[in-house]
Structures are given as structure tokens and as C-alpha cells.
Amino acid sequence: MLEHGLQLSADYQITIALQGDGPLSPQAVTVIDGESVTAAVRLIRWFGAETLRIYRSMVETVEDRQTRLLMDMANRQNGTVTIRDVMRAGPCYGDKATVMREFHRLARLGYGEVTEQSAGPNGGRPSICFRVTDGNNGAHGEPP
Questions:
Q1: What global pTM score does this model have?
Q2: pLDDT tens digits along 116-136
Q3: Residue 50: domain span
Q4: 143 falls within a domain
Q5: Can you tell me whether residue 126 is helix, strand or coil?
Q6: Which of 13, 23, 104, 113 fits a disulfide with 36 by CB distance 3.0 to 4.6 angstroms?
Q7: Does residue 87 share a domain with residue 67?
Q8: Helix or strand or coil: residue 128?
Q9: Interatomic CA distance for residues 112 and 109, integer angstroms
Q10: DSSP bridge pairs for 114
Q11: CA dihedral 84, 86, 87, 91 (to 10 degrees)
């Protein structure tokens, strides 16, 4: 692992050096700076997290998949998703009652809480929402 980290650090540093206007200096390819090491570590961590995500998805149950899809959807919408959001764009759960049961199941598992969002300034009905609690964002992120 250390060898791969050093190689990524060197590759990063050379790539940055090649973006300059002048010729490649010997120091650019012989001394690895802290920025290059930091970038390599971030990249290694991201690859590790992606590997775990992929392996987990290969063995997940239908219930695990539904949980992951709903949590991903909520996280894409700043941590809160309404029943209507799920029925329109998210994983297909069927009717309103099914979505509500799923919200309550996730709340019992400790992923978040079921809340009521008041009507907007133009009126309308309040919305039932699932709000992800702190520490449960589960976002996989993008590569650095």
C-alpha cells in the first residue's frame, strides 16, 4: 500500500509540474511535496471507500438496497425527502402508505426522523418528510 501511495504522490506531482510552461525540473521528479502526498492519500481513501461500496452492493438484500436508495435520495436533497419526492423520482415503493412505512422503518433503525413540513407561503397541505439525522449522511462522495 505504501508503494502505491508513493507512486500516486509522484504521479500527482509530475502531472502538476507538467502543467507549467517551462521544462520539467529535476526537483519536480525527485522530491515529493506535502500537497502531492495529501492528494494521494485522499485518492487512496476514496478508492477504498468505493471498493467497499461496490462489494456491499453485491451482497445487499432488497431491504438494504431500498434503504440505500432512499438514504442517497435524501442526501442529494440536503437530508430531507418528502413522500411526494419518493413517489415521483425515487425508488418505487408503491403508494403513500408504503412510503410512510419505509420512513418509519428508517427512523426506527436510527437513520433519521419522520417530520411534518408546514405548508409553504402559498398555502397547501403540510408534507410528511424523512429527515436524515447528523452522522447518517452515508454519502459516498466524488473522487477528489
A1: 0.56
A2: 887 778 877 888 899 998 766
A3: 2-59
A4: no
A5: coil
A6: 13
A7: yes
A8: strand
A9: 8
A10: 130
A11: 180
Instruction: Bin 93: left if φ > 0, else alpha if -120 < ψ < 50, else beta.
Output: alpha
Domain assignment present for 142: no
> Residues 80-86: contacts with CB within 8 Å, 24+ apart?
80/115, 80/117, 80/129, 80/130, 80/131, 80/132, 81/129, 81/130, 82/117, 82/127, 82/128, 82/129, 83/127, 83/128, 83/129, 84/127
pLDDT at residue 114 tops 90: yes
Q: What is the pLDDT of residue 24?
A: 66
Question: Rounded to an integer, what distance in angstroms lies between the CA atom of residue 120 and that of residue 83?
Answer: 16
Using alpha carbons only, give the angle 70, 75, 80 rounded to the nearest 5 degrees.
80
Identify whether residues 54 and 77 lie together within a single domain: no
Instruction: Give me the sheet containing 127-132, strands edge to edge.
Output: 80-82, 127-132, 112-117
Where a domain ends, among 43, 59, 75?
59
